[in-house]
Amino acid sequence: MPEETLRVVHYVNQFFGQIGGEDQAHVGFTVRKGVVGPGTLLQQVLGDQAEVVATLICGDNYFSSNPEQAAEEAIKLIDPYHPDLFFAGPAFEAGRYGIACGAVCKAVGRKLGIPVVTGMYEENPGMELYRKYAFICRTGRSARGMADSMRKMIRLALRLISGERETKQLSQENLPRPSEYDYFPRLLLRNEYTDETAAQRAVDKLLAKIKGDPFESEVVLPEFERIEPPAAIRDLSACEIALISDGGLVPKGNPDGLSGRGNLRWTTYELDDFLPNDFQSSAYEVAHTGYFPDEVLGNPNRLVPVDVMRDLVSEERVGTLHPTFFCTSGNATVTRRCAEMGDEIGAEIVKRGVDAVILTST
Amino acid sequence: MVQITAVPNVAQMVGVNRILRGQTVPCVMGDATLDSEQEKDLRLRMILRALEILQMDAPGPTTVFTLEGTE
Q1: If you average pLDDT over every residue of chain A, what do you get?
Q2: Residue A165: CB partners within 8 Å, gap ≥ 6?
Q3: CA torsion angle for A335, A336, A340, A341 (degrees, to 10)?
Q4: CA distance B25 to chain A (A)
């Protein structure tokens, strides 16, 4: 461990950086000296061992729309502070924030060669995308767990700092096990000596699995199913197209009770009534707290592009626009339920003889 | 099915087979800085691109389409 106080840089989004909420999610980077927001707790727990010399703040939409480019920009702002350690978030369940934390950690880890630690809930898309490139501690869903999450992140970070001469990171042989520090496995392979050969272990595990006994997988893969892509559409002018969105656009009053967060339902609306060309903004609301709804409410076609579809049909460039719009809200919904809703909507779409779907997502 | 989203890397991770980049998270099929005619024209171009993609053999989640080409 270096004798001087460790220098730390912390990344947070516009909300934790005290710039604003969803309305400020588009802002670019700001750097503030010292701590901001949850950085105070970070500094407190680090105590005398380290100093948070700077906090980098960025809007979630700005970052997550182009994570690799934004990360490059971030590096230029972080490098002058010569950090020994880098923390991002924790992001908990927030998807765009998780993507930003993961991407900035990945870039900092590679370019600056220092330990990079963040924290996310298991379902955060940033976790699967970036677990290989950063130490992502497991957190709960909400910032109520901030104190515990920070402590977990710091405990791991201090363990990672090493006195090795050339590099500030631990070499793979000394990496702490995910289970000991509660971070998501980085899908790293390292050599270990075992008493039994792989063949023996594999057969033992297979027999245990068949018997229904407990066994431990040595390599755990993420579970997204490969979907066979449907064939290309041959003739657009004979094609019936349906619109689906997970942006939560609903009639004012939200009659079907979609939740703004963790929503579990989908519903349908007949487009002629739901979104006529002479729509009134006041007739809608957005049941989705994951993005700032102003623009969509200003013109719902910005989410559900009916105006253009109607024109294409009347110009005979497309066969038909399916009269029913399939509506859900996809904000922090458990992936299993998302897949189920997809299956349910898919079955209904097939039943109705629709040929193709355009899905618009926020 | 083609998905239009401003955060295409999530679609890639999940394995969506036809992905078109949208404008921004809060305004995926529009641009509030344009006047309404220009914005509708942008939306039309995006839909025409989506329809083009539907007529291609699906490239799979390694490809993200944009209005002009691919990323």
Answers
A1: 92
A2: none
A3: -30
A4: 5
- Claim to verify: residue A321 and residue A347 sit in the same structural domain: yes
Is the residue at A231 inside a domain?
A: no
| Cβ pair B47:A312 closer than 8 A | yes
Residue at A44 is within a domain? yes
* Cβ separation A99–B4 shorter than 8 A: no
A131: CATH: 3.40.50
A227 lies within 8 A of chain B by CB:
yes
Cross-chain Cβ contact B28/A360 below 8 Å: yes
Residue A40 and residue A4 in contact, taking contact as beta carbons nearer than 8 Å: no
Q: How confident is the model at residue A181 (pLDDT cuts 50, 70, 90)?
A: very high
Question: pLDDT-based confidence at A173, cuts 50/70/90?
Answer: low
Interface of B with A in 26-65 (CB under 8 A): 26-30, 32, 36, 39-40, 43-44, 46-47, 50-51, 54-58, 60
Q: pLDDT tens digit string along B23-61?
A: 999 999 999 999 999 999 999 999 999 999 999 999 999
Answer yes or no: is pLDDT of B62 > 80: yes
Residue A314 sits in which domain range? 236-360
Residues A307, A132: Cα–Cα separation, whole Å: 43
Average pLDDT of span A277-283: 97
pTM for the predicted model, two decimal places? 0.66
Domain count, chain A: 3
Is A1 inside a domain boundary? no
The domain spans of chain B are 3-54
Which residue of chain B comes nearest to A298, CA vs CA? B32
Let me know whether A341 and A307 are in one domain.
yes
Res A1: pLDDT: 46
Candidates B14, B28, B51; nearest CB to A303: B28
Q: Which of A12, A14, A59, A21 is nearest to A40 (CA)?
A: A12
Q: How far is A232 from chain B (nearest CA, A)?
A: 5
Token pair for residue A56?
A: 């980098």
Residue A273 buriedness (CB in 10 A; 0-12 / 13-18 / 19+): exposed
Q: Is the ipTM of this complex over 0.85?
A: yes
Chain A residue numbers touching B51 (CB-CB < 8 A):
233, 236, 241, 312, 318
A150, A181, A212 — which closes off a domain?
Answer: A181
